[in-house]
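Could you help me review a protein record that somebody else here produced? My question to you is simply how this chain folds and whether the tokens agree. Thanks in advance; the entry in question is below:
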Amino acid sequence: MARKAHKKAVIPTGEGVNRGIVAEFIIFLVFQGFDLYSCAGVFVESRDALGIYETLKLQNKTKKMSVLQNSSLKATPTSNMASKLCTSEGVLDAFATKKIAEHIDTYDTGLNIYTFFFSVACGIFILHFFYWVALLIMSSLEANFLQEYWHWTVKFKLYFALAASFLQDIPVSTVTMELYLLRRGNAGLTCWQCSLDSKCVNDEYIENILSKSTNAMSLLIVAITITTLWKGISGFFRWARDEHCDVFPLRALASIFAGFIYMTVILTPCMTILKYRYYTLPGITPGFVAAVIDRVFIIGALLWSVGILAVCCCPLLQLIKLAQ
């Protein structure tokens, strides 16, 4: 009798929409909306930066001169190369006209790829939004809707969560890192921009140029971290539901642990780029964040290895079982 009373408390009775569903819908709007907003921020900032690079390349080509290819610069750097972040051996060769053009083309290609996955993210958000609206309407019209279709609702939520993670968060975060590292380092596009800007005379100025991309990237990583953590916690909490033994504290603790594991798995690809591409750039000095990423990366790589082995081996083991 106590169990039946508990069920009646969580299932709508036809007197309105279930408050738990409304709360989940609001959380979805806040977290997934924040995630999509951060993706849009990276897109706008990267597109504006590409416009600046294209304009500088055109001006440089029209004038048929490159400040960094002037032989006098090798002996006495001009004021716009006074920044310590953009001076090192080989930087003049890296700023050759042909190499810079290839660099900008690579950046343009990366932005096109990002635009595609950003469009996919918008599509997933729209579909997920209409799913939630339909769920709210049906649960308010039919008293036992959630009880009768509980397994279907859990499956659809899981499908949307996986789609948002593997078709949005992973590709968007990795491409963002690629766009970011193309600009960083003392041979990156930002230093090339600095070399053509008479106002770029110190590190503070170039850091101000880099701050926009850094803030956009940081906001995206924070948004992905929060949303994936919630997806892992809520997804495991639903999956671990048992009608015969519902121990809430145990489910809650296990769900939090699963959420952190899921978050680590989703962030591992972009951490790989940071570890092996970004922190190996000339002029980039690894710090405390790099040490944290290095340790978390080990856990993520282990989880990805286990997951790949499971995907490959489980079907084979199932075939062996059927053959027996």
Q: What stands out?
A: Residues 2-266 form one domain. The chain is about 80% helix and 0% strand.
